[in-house]
Amino acid sequence: MGRRVTPGGSKPFRSRSDRGAVLLEAAIITPLFVMLLFGIWTTARAWNVHNILDHAAREAARYGAVDQNNANIKNIARGEVLSASYPFDGNVTYCSAIVESGAVTSGDPGGLCINATLDPTTDDRVQVSLLIPSYQLNFVFFTTTVQLQARAVARLEP
Amino acid sequence: MLTAAALLFLLGAAALAVDGSMFFQQARSEQRVADLACLAGVQELPEDSVGAVTMAASFLRPNHPDLAGLNPATTSTGFGPVAGANTYTTGAFTIQIDAPFNGNSTKMRVSVTQSRGTHFGQAIGATSVPINQVAICEVGSAIGGGADMPFGVLSGFTGGIINYDNNGCTLNGQTNSQCSGLAIPRHNDPSGSGFNVNTADNYRANIISGINWQLFPPGAAFPSSQDILCRSQQSPQPGDPEPCNRVATVSGSDPSKVYEGLISGNNKYPPESQIGYLEKHHLVYRSTHGDLFDSHTLEDMVTCVASHNSTQVVPCPTPEDSLTWTGPTSAPIVYVSRVEDCDCPRFARVPVVDPNPGFPEANCTVHDPNDITQINKCFARIVGFESIWLLRPFFNDEEPPDGPGPVGAAENDFHSSGQQVKTLAAVSIVFNDDVVVEGRCFSSFKQGFPKAVRLTVS
Question: Would you say residue B64 has pLDDT above 90?
């Protein structure tokens, strides 16, 4: 887009068609920019929430490995989530289990906590899993959801 | 033109924000993996370095979905793990596990590295970024900074402060044919010329090595040079003469032949605040901290079964039970096997066991009860009890023992001849006098301690 100069002076002006083009261009680009900006924010926030879940799972598993009382493990995890500025912990599904001699001795017997493929076979351990099944990513003009899960498996301490 | 430039800038910002936050999340995730694997593996140390590596590797898999292909039994060399450095590779991950680490048999290191691909970063030429997280951890005793607690008095060791043999027991060369009595740290110079504990650098070392100990046989009068007032009473009473670092014994008509002792920090505080109080039958060990150090039972340490190799669990005898025994043949036929987990305090009653109860295959001199791989293989018959109060000697600026006063307070000190030593260590041998003790060892069973693990760097 060229700039036109009046023959006798220096004041630029735009033709009506130029101004229309700029307006049209802005109308196309602005939503894209807004979507990109919101996309940056919402994606980064999703990673941050994932990080919160990861940290909470780790802390709860570590606590459980020492305390070895399943009743407290979820509370620890929930406390970590809340203290990490994720107030929507109602969206989080908590699972914890203490596994001894290959069997769940306390806690949730299956589901999120147990992964028969990955888990050790015999070692006594505490397993914690936090899941947000549908975390919403907001791109202004549309939304989508992702699953966020964090899992921590810690060996029980003697 | 402006839009194109802005778009490039925006993509760069997106790369920073999205990929950057992803990297932080991945780093956090890797740190969790490294921490939990390290803490799992280090529990095998210091006994089993290879086992520590394998254990750590087995806890990598469940902690990260991208490590599902990792086989703990096979390192990148195609062989099994070894003591020392081991590398595992799977997908974009490279994991280095060192056990022992840096020459320290109680430490291990787990390093997790991932080559992580970028999303927006590709627009500015960054296709992948390595993310590396390291955990270093160590194992130690869960009890009081390395205090020792024996599982039992067994044969096989002769280097302890007190050694038992069929001729009695000896304490650093002092022999007492009755093999009982009360041993206390000597706080006077054995030469009798006085002992300036504040200037004798080897005082603490000598206590540890047994030099500054003295064994008092049943009914023995404590020499005045020891600056201890001895009484034939069970416990100190208000109004007792001062100074009052007491060791009391009971002998003669008392059929139990239980020797009682009290070692107090100094003469300033009343009996109810004694720091170590060995009462008759050794039921109470207490401090003004409110701890009942004697709160554990024998079952905390061992499983008593009806007979050799039996799975029938029976109640373990108590020290009180042993008072009715008239000799080794009258002791109940109860066998013990060690349990893996022992929440034992530093103050404990431990069984004196016959190391060879007639079953060679179960002989504790063959099966090391201190070897955690041989748990339940060692059976031994209880023939008595020892009451152990073992505080690691402390000296001057080192950590003071439990005492009635605040940490480091003067009243925690052990006074002797006007000098002060922050040291107390005592072994009270309290089994029935008539019980023949065939075990010969008083020693430390560090591996029998509950372990504690911690991360040192993360």
Answer: no
